[in-house]
Amino acid sequence: xxxxxxxxxxxxxxxxxxxxxxxxxxxxxxxxxxxxxxxxxxxxxxxxxxxxxxxxxxxxxxxxxxxxxxxxxxxxxxxxxxxxxxxxxxxxxxxxxxxxxxxxxxxxxxxxxxxxxxxxxxxxxxxxxxxxxxxxxxxxxxxxxxxxxxxxxxxxxxxxxxxxxxxxxxxxxxxxxxxxxxxxxxxxxxxxxxxxxxxxxxxxxxxxxxxxxxxxxxxxxxxxxxxxxxxxxxxxxxxxxxxxxxxxxxxxxxxxxxxxxxxxxxxxxxxxxxxxxxxxxxxxxxxxxxxxxxxxxxxxxxxxxxxxxxxxxxxxxxxxxxxxxxxxxxxxxxxxxxxxxxxxxxxxxxxxxxxxxxxxxxxxxxxxxxxxxxxxxxxxxxxxxxxxxxxxxxxxxxx
Length: 399
Description:
Blueprint: H1 5-10, E1 21-22, H2 33-39, H3 56-76, E2 83-86, H4 89-106, E3 113-117, H5 122-130, E4 137-141, H6 151-157, E5 162-166, H7 180-190, E6 193-197, E7 215-219, E8 230-234, H8 262-300, E9 305-306, E10 317-321, H9 327-333, E11 338-339, H10 355-359, H11 364-368, E12 370-374, H12 381-398
Parallel strand pairs: 1-11, 3-4, 3-5, 5-6, 6-7
Antiparallel strand pairs: 2-8, 7-8, 9-10, 10-12
Helix pairs in contact: 2-8, 3-8, 4-5, 8-12
């Protein structure tokens, strides 16, 4: 798990030469050195276009892309031809939600309701909201104070007008894990399509058959791969397929035109294969590190509270509330020594309380005093000890 940790840490020095302790793994993960090794040939000597089908240089690139699609398919238990490569999970989420809306309209399908959880990523909420201009109705599935879907209310919301249900597997802020197999089964029973954003769910069972999943979004940079590439699983058996959002050469079975970046695909594939092999052992290690972090910080700050369910949670995630200090004030005050965040990096800079925490019932004040810490593959106990010392010293200084 700590392979080449020192090499990674060399890249965590800021421009003043101070090494930052990185505890924001749900925002992005460092590139694993094995992933970089897989990418390098396609950034230098093997530069061909994977869609150049008339010569060997193009064939080599295409072989690399096909290998990556197989590696990603193995990661989620799908077929390689069901993997559409995109620029990231945001594009994947937009493609499936807006694309299905377009498909339903073009085929005169009468279902016009879309159900999304109230704690979805902003790109899911935004894509669903976009479809309301075409007459679709978007309804938000409530969650319990633990951040888990209220299954009773969800089952009551399902009817013959529901086209699509979109519920993320693992939340990006509080780390809660949803019962996607049960959700998928209920969707199947009522004839609704089921999509899950699984970008943060690398330590869960993502088998698309086990979980009754029609569509799944993935992101490479959440699993120690490169930024700029993601994937959308489109089940061969889904009764409706999304219309494309990008038009051009008709690559990837017409779902997503454009040249696939071979080096990013190779990196994504390698990252997925590594995660497939190590996820169980790594999960255990991360849970131990996270629990150690929680125990250390609770000992020094007894007033701290945990947001979200601890029994169904990303193994590296903690979302904590410290009543004595606003989270942004705390985070800014310890820069550049420790890197963590208030929540989603995709909404950083937005001056508003987390919609996830608000949906879980937290007050605006409590949401503003909450922050997310995530340990990962290159974290060790020394990082935790040092980070806790910095955090607790600052908190006590403010009291």
